[in-house]
Amino acid sequence: MTDIAGGPSGHGPASGRQPLSRDLILDTAITYMDAQGIQHLTMRRLGQQLGVEAMSLYRYVNGREDLLEGVVDRLVDQIRVEPGTRMEPEDGWQAFLQWMAHSVRRLALQHPAVFPLVATRHPAAPWLRPPLRSPRVVEEFLTSLTARGFTEKQAVRAYRTFSSFLLGHLLLEVATLGAETGPVEEPLDEGGAALPGGVQELDLAAFPTVERLRPLLSEDHTDDEFEQALEALLDRIDLELSQ
For the domain that residue 98 is a member of, what is the CATH number? Predict the structure, then answer.
């Protein structure tokens, strides 16, 4: 296996190495998984990429689970309105959803081997839906739609429908590019890191819309949403056949 930093496997950069930090570790892990895939990532191999012993990483990450959670957070944090881009309410909700969809798709295509982590790992709360899984992104989504004329209930419904569309389409798309979409092999608990699946208590003070709409976000309408999506698909196919 070739070292992503340019040297043979097991040898990190000899000189000019950046000071070790959590951000550097996460960025290096993303680069490694882009090149080698998720399944090959271990703390030992990541240490090799950084030119340090694996034990040095535990000052910044609490094991592989914490590392993967950090990778997901770092990638999702890239879903932002680009500086200088105007997205005012008068631009309309279609323009906003177009921007959001293409932003997430760009992330998936830039990191096809890593995107399944974003799509399949348990979010911090069960009412957050991958890939729009961070309170900051959901806050922006809901406030943007309500500013464009949606009621709060309509905005929450759009969030669920839109997330389902992105998840299904983009997982299929990265799979065609060779990404492994099966579950990551469950590692042993390392360093006291929380294993996936546990519900975390989120601090939503900075996200007032999400906090206010949490009861709506927590409602389960899975059966109705499936039927509505299926009917919309059938209507679209019928329209194409009639043209």
Answer: 1.10.357
Tell me whether residue 214 is in a domain. Answer: yes
Is there a single domain that holds both residue 163 and residue 230? yes
State which residues form the domain around 50: 13-61
Residue 77, φ and ψ in degrees, nearest 5:
-65, -15
**CA 1, chain centre distance (Å):** 27
Inter-axis angle of helices 135-147 and 93-110, to 10 degrees?
160
Quick one: 152 and 39 in the same domain?
A: no
Nearest alpha carbon to residue 87 among 13, 144, 24: 144
Return the structure tokens found at 144. Answer: 């943007």
Q: Are residues 176 and 222 in the same domain?
A: yes
CB atoms within 10 A of CB 118: 26
- Tokens representing 176 are 């065609």
Render pLDDT for 115-168 as a digit per residue (tens, 0 to 9): 999 988 888 888 999 999 999 999 999 999 999 999 999 999 999 999 999 999
Within this chain, do residues 181 and 142 fall inside the same structural domain, yes or no? yes
pTM attached to this predicted model: 0.79
Could you give the CA distance from residue 139 to residue 211 in angstroms, rounded to a whole number?
A: 9
Q: Report if residue 204 sits inside a domain.
A: yes
pLDDT digits (tens, 9 = 90+) for 70-119: 999 999 998 876 545 566 677 789 988 998 999 999 999 999 999 999 98
